[in-house]
Structures are given as C-alpha cells and as structure tokens.
Design goal:
Chains A, B, C, D: It comes from Sphingomonas carotinifaciens. Chains A, B, C, D: This is Heme-binding protein. Chains A, B, C, D: Pfam families: HbpS-like. Chains A, B, C, D: InterPro entries: GlcG_carb_metab_protein (IPR052517), PduO/GlcC-like (IPR005624), PduO/GlcC-like_sf (IPR038084). The structure is a homotetramer. In chain A, β3 and β4 form a beta hairpin. Chain A has 5 helices and 4 strands, in the order αββαααββα. A 4-stranded antiparallel sheet of chain A has the order 2-1-4-3, with helices on both faces. Chain A is of the alpha+beta class. In chain A, 47% of the residues lie in helices and 19% in strands. The first copy, chain A, has one domain: Haem-degrading domain (Beta-Lactamase, 2-Layer Sandwich), CATH 3.30.450. At the C-D interface, α1 and β2 of C face α1 and β2 of D.
C-alpha cells in the first residue's frame, strides 16, 4: 500500500533535493498507478511523462531505471521493443527508484526528470529515504 | 502561468473539500500539462485518468466539464467523436473547472474524480477559490 | 496480493461454471495486471480483450462491471469517454466481479466473456467463491 | 488449432521449468491470440507484455524470437520499425518459441519472460515438448 501521506512526504523530500535545474517527480503505487505528482516551476513539459515512465519502468522490470538503462546500453533493440510493447511505459535513464518494504516487496517507485540522470536518481533516493523515515 | 506553490494550494483545498468518498485531484497548466496531482487513500485506479480528462477537456473546449457534459447529453455522437479524436482527452462529467485570470484568460484547470459529479465539481471549485486566495 | 495458486483455483472454478457457450476468463491483481487467463475451445477472438476490460473496469471504478453497465445505460456519453480516456480499459457489461478481502479491500477481479452478461457474471462469481474457499 | 487442454499442459510444463527467477508464460494460437497465461508470484508487472510480445513476434515473423533477436542485433533500425509498425507486437529477445505441427505448420507459440533470455527460451521449449507429448 502507498498511503497518500507517505507518498507526499517522499515527494516533498524528492523536490527538496533538486539542485540547479527544476524537476518533476511522481510517486507510483505497487501497481504502477500515480499517487502524487508535482512539477517545479520552469521544468519543461515532457518531464511528467519521463518521470512517470522511469518509475513505471522500474516497477515493471523489478529494478531501478539506472540498472535498466545500463542493460539497455548493451541491448538497445530489446529495450526499445519493450518500450513499444508496453505502450511507452519505460524510460531508459536513471531517476526511477523502487520503494521496497523491509522484506523486499515492491511498494511503489519514485520517478524524477529534469536534471542529469545522476541528479534525478539522487533526488528520487532522497524521496525513498524520506518514505522510510530515514530523515 | 501555473506556479507549483499556487497549484499545490489549490490541490490541498480541493482535497480538503472531499466528503464521504475519497477523490483524486489534478491541477493542469494553460497548456493542459500536469502541475500537481494527489490520489486519496481508497480512491480507485481510474480516478487519475478521469480527473485528468475532466480538467483537460475543460481547457480543450474552453468551458467547465459540467457545461460540456450538458452539451454532450444533447449531442452524444459529436462529443464521443471528440473524445476519440483527441485520444481520450475528454471526460463528459462535472468535476473539471477552469482557473481564469481576472481578465478571463485561462490559466489552467482543476479536475476531480471519486464522488458524484456534483461533489467532484464542488471540490474543484474550492480549489479554484483557494487559487485566487478567496479563503 | 494475488498468488498464482489462488488465481488458478478461481480461474478453474470460473471455467467450470460455464454452460452452453465457451468462455474466456481472466484473473487480475489489485493493480489491474493479469495473473491467470484461459480461453475455452470455440470462444471467439475478442473474448480475451473483453474479459480483461470487464475485470479492469471493475478495479478501476471500484465496483462490479454489472453496476458500471447500469450506470452507463443512464449516462452513456460519460462512460464512453472513460473507455477512451483509459485506453479501452473498460467494458460496459456484466461479467467483471471484484475480489475483496474480509475488510473490503480490493484484491483483484475476475472477468468473463463468451456467454450472456448474466451467465458471464455467474461464472465470475463462482470464481470469486472459489478464491475465498467457499466451495 | 490450439485446444485449451493442450495449451494448459504446455503452460504447466513451461512454469515447471522455471528456475531461480519467477516467470510469466503465455500460449498463443496460430492467429496470435491468447489461449492460456500465468504469472508466477514475484514476477514483475511487465512480464505479461514481454512474454506476449515474444510469442506474438515469433508467430508474426515465422521464427523463434531468439533468431529474430539475432537478426535485430545486426539490423536494429528495421526491427525497431517493425515493433512500432505492429503496435508493439514484437519483443527482441529469446523466449518466444513456435509450436509447429509434424508437417511444419505453425500452430501457435509460447512466450516466457522473467529470467535470462536463455532460461526463458529453455522454459518455453519445455512447454513445446509437453505440447507434443514428449514428456
């Protein structure tokens, strides 16, 4: 379960971790459905769709989008075909980070877009930490 | 322009106006792009897509979704064709309310789904009032 | 959670309840994702997509597809717009039945297509009963 | 023809061949339409779409998805264009295996996703063997 209060705490910590560039961030539940979203002033229009596809791709493949992007760099044709087969549910770049329970179960994911992939992922990880109360 | 701070104030007021049923609410900018979204605990999965389509339909047609729904009740074939032609960007039910400037310019819209159309629209109107500082 | 063993028990009971006409039946988890599916010999080709859309619509709207169909009969334009807005995730006919926990939480849904809507729904209900061990 | 009983025997043998990682497996008929599907506990959400696209791609191109993936590695632009042209009906990775009659006619295909491509293909081949009664 992904309660709105926890998703919002995660979203706020994600946004607070943004640096120079404005970002968009989304929190999805375990089924890949949106719970909370925000786009900072100045973030460009595709940021919503990219953030969502990073987070949804992480849930769909069962690993962070940074790892998926590494695999895609070695096998681009397959991951392009997955992107198409899933209707664009996958963005092949860091910034989609799974939220797991203590037992390893996927509870949801945070997706970020707007800065470099590395900074996007750092922001999302700040959100995951806030979700777990590690503030 | 739809600053995130104003969109969030509108979103929070919208959520606070919810009654018995949990809702999902979204704030779109003048281009129809998401700025802020939240889904309350227990709201069913399509609420995101329906809230978004109510708000986007309002911006796309230039009137609140309640008025669009009234027109659609008299002319369903046309509005169904618009729904298909726009790729599902329109939900024919109250709950999508335009945010306008003092001069009448469309600044964005709020979309709500989860309760009856009338209550959804009341929640969205509370959000518009908060946007304008009429609290 | 929707374990495969429980989904299969539900699916088999659903299929066993079919009468004259061959059916297709699907079990979805709480996020609307397929866990188990079977199409009986002679069931026509759209049965998969219709069964899935009945079950997914039930999860997405939070009520059985028979109730959704009743509402759609009174308000067809809105439900057509929802079908389009959700990318065809909704089939407006009986045969999609929610699976709920004792506490009322949605655990998934069963969707059936192939016979009349009433018989489809009866088959799905047999599957829900099997899921709960009410055999 | 792909009778449900034979498809289920193939599906069960496919699932039984899974090793460390949970898989999803699907059996399609000669027209590319689903007959039977199951997702093992813990398999991530995209496994359905990927398994289906592996099997459908095999039927659509007339060869196992491992061979298609080999061709795609040498000519990625063409196979990406096929994935788009067919609306995502193709996954460029091993794990989609044709089921042929003694005379070479395509009767259907099995698609598997969840483990490495090689193991996915081994699982699917176990399913094909079971279909032919070579148990």
């Amino acid at each position: 379960m992904m309660p709105l209060a926890a998703a919002r705490a995660a979203l706020d910590a994600t946004l607070a971790a943004a640096r120079a560039a404005p970002i968009a961030a989304i929190v999805l539940d375990a089924g890949g459905h949106p719970v909370a979203f925000a786009r900072q002033d100045g973030a460009s229009l595709f940021r919503h769709d990219i953030a969502r596809a990073k987070a949804l791709g992480a849930i769909g493949m069962g690993q962070d989008s940074a790892e998926i992007a590494d695999r895609a760099a070695r096998n681009p044709a397959f991951f392009t075909s997955v992107a198409v087969a899933t209707g664009g549910a996958l963005a092949l770049s860091a910034g989609g980070v799974l939220i797991r329970s203590a037992g390893g179960q996927i509870l949801g994911a945070i997706g970020v877009s707007g800065d470099t992939p590395d900074i996007d992922a750092t922001c999302a990880q700040a959100g995951v930490a806030a979700f777990h109360g590690d503030r």
